[in-house]
Amino acid sequence: MRGLGRFCLAGFIAASGAPQAAPPARATDAAASKVLSAAREALGGDSRLSSVKNFVATGRTRQVRGDHLVPIEFEIVCELPDKYLRTDEIPAQESGPTASGFNGAELIQLPPPSPTAGRDGGPGGGPSPAQMDAGRDGRVASIKQDFVRLTLGMFAGSFDTYPLTFSYVGQAEAPQGKADVLDARGPGSFAARLFINSETHLPIMLSWQGPGAPMRGMSGPGGPPITPGSAAPPPAAAAAGGPPAGGPPAGGMRGAPPAGPAAPPVEYRIYYADYRDVGGMQWPFRIRRATGPDTTEETTFDRFRINTRIDHKRFEVRK
Question: Which of 38, 158, 235, 303 has a Cα at 20 to 30 A from 282?
């Protein structure tokens, strides 16, 4: 992308009762269970991870939009296992903050969706109530997938709000050594590959296949760390010796492909990096998103607060 080199981050590399993250028992085979158990131990151990009732995270995202790198300040408020809200504000714009999330099966969206449903739907009448309901359901599913992709790097497991099953695929080469690769499957067509460092046992990457042409974005120092036998990064699933993992991209929130004509599937990736101590646990403070060979977004967390007081009105559903 023209003029984007000045934006690159030098050295940026993938980065009531107590609800519990799903234990490795969800794994479909013993090998996957062993890898997940080791990952959860490296992240802080089952006891600490399962004691997390909620967390609040703040930080900054730099997102590629056309030829510009847009700074976004965000706050994530999460009450496990089924309440999640991300609020974004762009300092350079005069518009107010926007927020999206879910409360159980309900969509949280601020500003709320405009009530434009027509009486019968169809031309001139706007979408029908059924169409609007389907749109909300799809939006909730998309945000839950984004929630899953974030929390896999924190918990190496899933939650009942969007449960995953895991199976062992094999190993892939990485500059840090070897990475164990797990196949993750979830509701609908969700499918992804989770890469866990075989030495540190920390999650380092999640990859999945989705429709759409690759977005132009940042490249340079800190490129994809998984490079099994090729100068150009191949699909991570193929590197692990299996078929590409299918599934939708992280729609709506971040990293989604632009709308347009159908295009061949491309690979989407999230890199987890800069693990630091958070209440005796190891959580990633840097996350990079890529579409095909291009970085589309870089996120830096400033702070995580665990088991803090959260106003339940934050998760109010407005219709």
Answer: 235
